[in-house]
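Troubleshooting: if your tokenizer reports a length mismatch, compare your output against this known-good record of 58 residues.
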Amino acid sequence: MPFKVTFIGARSIEFSRKLLSDLLSAPEFKNIEVAFTDINEENLDMVTKLCQRDIDIN
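Known-good structure output:
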């Protein structure tokens, strides 16, 4: 059953990308929906784009 994982305070690029990578490496998390939230829209946009790129590559 797919579920949603939300990153609250996702502006830390390195941490968010690593955590997402770790989640997606587990077969149980292959069909998750991911959401990012943060009060800094600029960093949030950057993290979202980089993580989407990582997802598309895999």
